[in-house]
Amino acid sequence: MTNKKHASDSVVPRGDVSKRVGVEQIRQRGVNVAELLEMLIDAAGAEFTTYYYYTLLRMNLAGKEDYKEICEDARLEDRAHFELITPRIYELGGQLPADIRAFADRAGCPDAFLPGYSGVRAEGARTVEKLQEQGYKAADILGVLLEAERCAIRTWSEICDVTFGKDPRTYDMASRILQEEIEHEAWFLELLSMEREGISRPSGHFRRGDPGEAPYSKNRGFYNP
Ligand SMILES: [Fe+2]
Ligand SMILES: [Fe+2]
Fold this sequence. Notes:
The protein has 225 residues and is mostly helical. It has a domain at 30-113 and 136-197: Up-down Bundle (Ferritin), CATH 1.20.1260. Helix content is 55%, strand content 4%. A hairpin with a 6-residue loop joins strand 1 and strand 2 (128-130). It is elongated. The chain starts with 20 loop residues before the first helix and ends in a 28-residue tail after the last helix.
């Protein structure tokens, strides 16, 4: 064989299927792959649980059809974020927890409970306690949505930091997700500011073409029908 410098290396022998060049190369560039995987699983858990909780939040925006629509975009885009990042976890040699309860518990962001729930599970209780009988104020729901987006921005910014210049594939995914999270914060900040304080703080947003279009993060339609 002629001497081609990338034909082989000492870390991954030719024919070895127990290691991945795609992992070893980022490790050699300074990524702690085990730590990155933990961060990605926590982040995927947050996207997945947020998708679930946004369903409840959207359902309870009764009478605010414009808010519902914007909540729906953010909800479907969180699902797209979960779909985008999960294959990367496996490529890096990781896996999602076998138990969905373990997955939800390790989500990197707090549960986005409906307003009026205790937020903590009492000793021996199966679920959180409902403190308020009914009637959710839109401003309270928008406040939950806003803080969930802010947690997502912190999460994906950190993943961008640890992958920048070292792991272009994870960085590219994280940065595309981050761009949508920044948009989501701006949307809910605009709505909450007007709803609660009557102050205009425009997001620059009009509307997505279709619900949950996810212009930055969406894979092919096959993955996110
Ligand atoms: Fe997200
Ligand atoms: Fe989001």
